[in-house]
Design brief:
Layout lengths: L2 E4 L2 E8 L6 E5 L11 H9 L3 E5 L18 H9 L10 H15 L4 E6 L1 H12 L4 E7 L13 H8 L8 H15 L8 H14 L3 H14 L3 H5 L5 E6 L7 H10 L4 E5 L11 H14 L4
Helix pairs in contact: 1-11, 2-8, 3-4, 6-7
Length: 298
């Protein structure tokens, strides 16, 4: 996988398929690496006639880390957010959207379908709002607008998300920590077998483990605040996908996004949580293929 210069950083990028086909840019969520995009879903899109691009966001995976930034105090940032005070951050969601544009520039791609999950959906929304000329369509999956009126995760889920193992925690302790988190936020109707979950967590941790980057990405979400005005500017064909059992970003957030993006289509999947479980992939793959084909260039 090559390192490409994008928006002043070195980002890890992987491409699959034929460059002559319409491009699909996949943007992953909070603290997640490009390998979190299921290989089977990527290959399905390639087989459907698309050039697939996935990459590690800044501060995560094998991409460049923003190590010069000061240590993040998430508790203080959250308090300032709820008091509607400005929150300082090394970068914001808009900056990460510019990173994604930088990936397209580095690959010489003029326009692409933009697909984002969770934080990646927020980045995708910002990208399409600010750079519509570079976008064929938007697919926003289990994401949110940042509207403070929308429901948030329960206290139990929030604690799991914010918990951090000891700095010197052994590898298997880290594995079990993330198994607990991803089991808690996963899809109840499409459960991931524990052995497969552990295999995935081990693969992610062996490739990279950088909790400071996850904290800065979370700070970027808080600092970016309510992005509803940006969503209302989106004029590209949009598909919003959300699960009705999402415990991290409740389904009302998906409904909110679809209402604010002009002309957006909303697909609510029963029993889907906050993951890309194997059992969900046929449903997601079909929804994405239909949306992308409908909005390919003539």
């Amino acid at each position: 996988m090559p390192q490409l210069a994008a928006n002043g950083l070195q980002l890890e990028v992987e491409t699959l398929g034929d460059r002559a086909h319409p491009a699909v840019l996949l943007i992953m969520g909070l603290g997640m690496q490009l390998i979190a995009w299921p290989e089977s879903l990527c290959q399905e899109l390639v087989a459907a006639g698309f050039f697939v691009i996935r990459f590690d966001n800044r501060d995560i995976g094998l991409s460049e880390k923003i190590e010069s930034a000061r240590r993040v105090n998430l508790a203080t940032a959250a308090l300032r957010y709820f008091l509607r005070l400005p929150v300082s951050a090394p970068y914001r969601i808009e900056t990460m959207a510019d990173d994604a544009i930088g990936v397209l520039d580095a690959l010489g791609i003029d326009k692409a379908h933009i697909v984002g999950v969770s934080l990646g959906g927020m980045i995708a929304q910002s990208l399409v709002a600010e750079h519509p000329q570079r976008c064929l369509s938007l697919s926003s999956i289990m994401s949110a607008s940042g509207d403070r009126r929308m429901p948030t995760a329960s206290l139990r889920i929030s604690r799991l998300l914010m918990a951090r193992p000891a700095r010197n925690a052994k590898f298997e302790v880290l594995v079990e920590h993330f198994v607990r988190l991803f089991t808690a936020i996963g899809s109840p109707a499409f459960p991931t077998p524990p052995a497969l979950m552990r295999e995935r967590m081990r693969a992610n941790l062996q490739r990279s483990y950088y909790p400071a980057g996850t904290a800065r990405q979370l700070l970027a979400i808080v600092a970016s605040g309510d992005r509803s005005a940006a969503l209302r500017r989106i004029r590209r064909p949009t598909l919003v996908v959300h699960g009705d059992a999402d415990p991290l970003v409740p389904v009302a957030n998906g409904v909110d996004c679809a209402r604010k993006i002009p002309g957006a289509s909303l697909r609510i999947i029963p029993g889907m949580g906050h993951d890309l479980a194997s059992g969900l992939l046929p449903i997601l793959g079909d929804a994405l293929r239909t949306h992308l084909h409908a909005n390919n260039p003539n």
